[in-house]
């Protein structure tokens, strides 16, 4: 069991209490997965810039690690550095290809990982409950246009920050996913990706969802195409949410094994594993419907 | 009429308040601010009217025997699962596994039903005004399953003696599910059933198609190995 949730504000003003909405949703789902919690939040920022969030390591002298990584990032234009807990955050001008930047930062140590990168995306995740996430990062203060969230019950891989969700698709700025379920052809697909030089950061089967969708988007299709093709290529159970700076959507596996319900009003779209999360966060007179097997819906602006 | 405010209370406290209201003689109970909580109104054995002013989570009305439950919002998984008798009416949508293993009484859903509607039902009436999802009626044994809108894939798969009626399109029939002609007087009986649960706003019974088991899976016959391969 895991819990997933998503919120999309339709006007695109980018100034809703997004962090608070996601926190309330994920808190209501907290009992579905006590291992770790995370959110991916999107906020309009100055075009042509990126915000990076870097995991400094699993243990050890993190402030020293922050200094070391800041120096490496500054050499490629990084600025406005700030550190909270195990994260270093900084901004830089958008670059043609993020790979040199990632290589530079992640070569500092094996347990350093760029957790998210993009013009509007920021991911915050860690081991522990939604309340812990709030007390460490004050996510309820974050304002933005849309976002996705996850609370995890680990079944197959270890519990640590990197194995938590949401997953950023490393190398594809602004794409994030959350997944509830099991991808049963994970090992087969992973071998194929690794033969093509894709680096996997975790043993978590959900990571492959992000890699798969990034690959589809890199081919030039939109999120609708990516999520629809996923139904043919990924086996197992999955209720997934995916978001980019301009799109937001869900896919439900052909057997409808994992729950997922949503509501759409004139102002917003809210999606969650259980309706209890939507009711906890959003007042109003709206109807919630469980999604059907193979259902794919995408909203864009 | 007893009123119970669910806000700030645990599920156990809400259900205890419902039972206390019944024990002290209330025959009509309203639960406000349910917030889509799970396990509300489970195993009620008295003929009371319980109205839930909002949405419910999983298993609402499950194991009931005689109560009449009205949900003004949506319902989550396992609505009225294994209900023996009584009525559960949901004004919006229902989640997966609604009316699963239903034994008797009626489940009426005014919106859509998600996957696995009425699986393994052993009696009673299920009426969905909207559409139903994948695998409705799987291994259903007795009773009546009515879908006024469209039915999802693998409809009525591997059934025993449940009779299904569909008003809209059927995405695909399941293994051993077959379309069947209405018998003499059957359209009138269907109309009376629809009238009982939906009143004057009911759809026309003449527009429904009937789906029953083809009975190929009722007894094993190795000459029909192919259909068994598909079914298993």
Walkthrough of the structure:
The complex is a heterodimer of chains A (301) and B (232). Chain A has eight helices and 16 strands. Chain A is α+β, with helices and mostly antiparallel strands and 301 residues long. In chain A, the strands form three sheets. Chain A has a seven-stranded antiparallel β-sheet, with helices on one face. Chain A has a five-stranded antiparallel β-sheet with strand order 9-10-11-12-16. A four-stranded antiparallel β-sheet of chain A has the order 4-5-3-6, with helices on one face. Chain A is globular, with a radius of gyration of 18 Å. Chain B has a domain at 93-231. Chain B has helices at 11-23, 186-198, 225-231; strands spanning 2-5, 28-32, 49-53, 65-71, 85-90, 106-109, 122-128, 142-147, 163-166, 177-180, 209-213. The N and C termini of chain B lie far apart (51 Å). Chains A and B meet through helix 8 and strand 15 of A and loops of B.
In total, the number of strands of chain B is 11
Number of domains as seen in the coordinates of chain A: 2
> Percent helix among the residues of chain B?
10-25%
Oligomeric grouping of the chains: heterodimer
Please state the overall shape of chain B, judged from the principal axes of the Cα atoms: elongated
* Helical segment count of chain B: 3
Across the major sheet of chain B, the strand order is 1-2-3-4-5-6-7-8-9-11-10
Essential attributes:
A: Glutamine Phosphoribosylpyrophosphate, subunit 1, domain 1; Alpha-Beta Plaits; 5-stranded antiparallel β-sheet; 16 strands; B: 232 residues; alpha/beta; 11-stranded mixed β-sheet; 3 helices
């Amino acid at each position: 069991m895991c819990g997933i949730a998503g919120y999309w504000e339709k006007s695109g003003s980018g100034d809703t209490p997004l962090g608070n909405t996601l926190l309330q949703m994920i808190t209501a789902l907290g009992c579905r997965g006590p291992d770790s919690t995370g959110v991916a939040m999107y906020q309009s920022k100055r075009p042509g810039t990126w915000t990076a969030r870097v995991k400094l390591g699993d243990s050890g002298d993190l402030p020293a690690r922050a200094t070391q990584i800041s120096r490496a990032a500054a050499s490629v234009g990084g600025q406005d550095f700030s550190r909270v807990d195990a994260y270093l955050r900084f901004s830089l001008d958008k670059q043609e290809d993020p790979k040199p930047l990632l290589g530079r930062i992640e070569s500092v140590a094996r347990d350093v990982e760029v957790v998210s990168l993009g013009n509007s995306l920021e991911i915050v995740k860690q081991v522990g409950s939604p309340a812990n996430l709030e007390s460490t990062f004050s996510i309820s203060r974050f304002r933005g246009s849309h976002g996705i969230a996850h609370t995890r019950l680990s079944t197959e891989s270890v519990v640590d920050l990197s194995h938590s969700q949401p997953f950023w698709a490393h190398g594809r700025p602004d794409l994030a996913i959350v997944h509830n379920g099991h991808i049963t052809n994970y090992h087969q697909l992973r071998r194929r990706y690794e033969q093509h030089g894709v680096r996997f950061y975790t043993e978590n089967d959900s990571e492959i969802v992000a890699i798969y969708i990034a690959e589809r988007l890199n081919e030039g299709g939109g999120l609708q195409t990516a999520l629809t093709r996923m139904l043919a290529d990924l086996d197992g159970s999955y209720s997934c949410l995916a978001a980019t700076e301009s799109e937001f959507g869900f896919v439900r596996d052909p057997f409808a094994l994992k729950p997922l319900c949503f509501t759409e009003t004139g102002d917003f779209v809210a999606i969650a594993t259980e309706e209890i999360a939507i009711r906890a966060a959003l007042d109003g007179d709206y109807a919630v419907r469980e999604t059907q097997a193979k259902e794919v819906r995408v909203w864009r602006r | 009429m007893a009123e119970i405010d669910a806000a700030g209370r645990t599920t156990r406290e809400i259900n205890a308040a419902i039972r206390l209201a019944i024990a002290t003689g209330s025959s009509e109970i309203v639960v406000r601010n349910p917030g889509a909580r799970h396990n509300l109104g489970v195993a009620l054995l008295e003929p009371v009217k319980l109205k839930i002013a909002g949405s419910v989570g999983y298993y609402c009305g499950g194991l009931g025997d005689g109560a009449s439950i009205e949900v003004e919002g949506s319902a989550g998984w396992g609505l009225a699962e294994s209900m023996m008798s009584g009525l559960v009416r949901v004004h919006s949508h229902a989640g997966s596994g609604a009316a699963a293993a239903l034994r008797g009484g009626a489940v009426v859903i005014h919106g859509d039903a998600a996957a696995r509607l009425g699986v393994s039902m052993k009696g009673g009436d299920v009426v969905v005004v909207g559409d139903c999802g994948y695998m409705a009626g799987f291994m259903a044994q007795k009773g009546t399953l009515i879908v006024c809108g469209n039915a999802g894939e693998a409809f009525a798969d591997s059934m025993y003696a449940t009779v299904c009626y569909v008003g809209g399109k059927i995405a695909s029939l399941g293994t051993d599910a077959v379309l069947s002609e209405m018998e003499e007087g059957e359209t009138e009986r269907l109309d009376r059933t629809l009238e009982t649960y939906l009143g004057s706003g009911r759809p026309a019974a003449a527009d429904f198609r009937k789906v029953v088991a083809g009975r190929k899976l009722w007894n094993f016959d190795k000459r029909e190995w192919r259909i068994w391969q598909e079914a298993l």
